[in-house]
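Example 9 (inverse folding). The structure is encoded as follows.
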């Protein structure tokens, strides 16, 4: 006889530890890992983590889709949202891939998709991400810490 693990639904009085479930729409790179660490805020992966491909959205978590400001990234976002289904509206963390504003096509597409999103949090271009070995090293830099605090305030509505 084999047994399979069963996921239980938490009761209303049981707090859900995982708060943010991240879903990269165009690849899982240093930007996605850093956004997860920013939202986790030192909880050791208990408050925010990147979902594996095909993994079910955990009950009670806030879905967060992450993409960069390229037209390619925004097209992948649009495809993701077209297949989204009855899940709660996700937050978009829009990570700048260059020190300039996004191109017009990307801006217009995100504006058109705004009704399918809970909100858009823009992460500025962080050049330090090109030179670090991981998100923990990135979070040692003041500009990344500032961006992390702003990101959390935006998503939490404070």
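The amino acid assigned to each position is listed next.
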């Amino acid at each position: 006889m084999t047994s399979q693990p069963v996921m239980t639904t938490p009761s209303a009085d049981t707090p859900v530890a995982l708060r943010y479930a991240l879903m990269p729409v165009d690849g899982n790179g240093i930007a996605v890992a850093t956004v997860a660490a920013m939202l986790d805020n030192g909880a050791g992966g208990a408050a925010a983590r990147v979902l594996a491909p095909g993994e079910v959205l955990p009950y009670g978590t806030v879905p967060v889709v992450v993409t960069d400001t390229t037209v390619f990234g925004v097209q992948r976002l649009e495809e993701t949202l077209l297949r989204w289904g009855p899940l709660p509206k996700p937050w978009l963390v829009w990570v700048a891939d260059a020190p300039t504003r996004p191109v017009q096509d990307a801006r217009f597409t995100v504006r058109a998709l705004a009704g399918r999103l809970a909100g858009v949090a823009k992460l500025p271009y962080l050049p330090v991400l090109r030179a670090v070995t991981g998100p923990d090293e990135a979070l040692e830099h003041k500009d990344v810490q500032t961006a992390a605090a702003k990101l959390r305030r935006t998503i939490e509505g404070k």
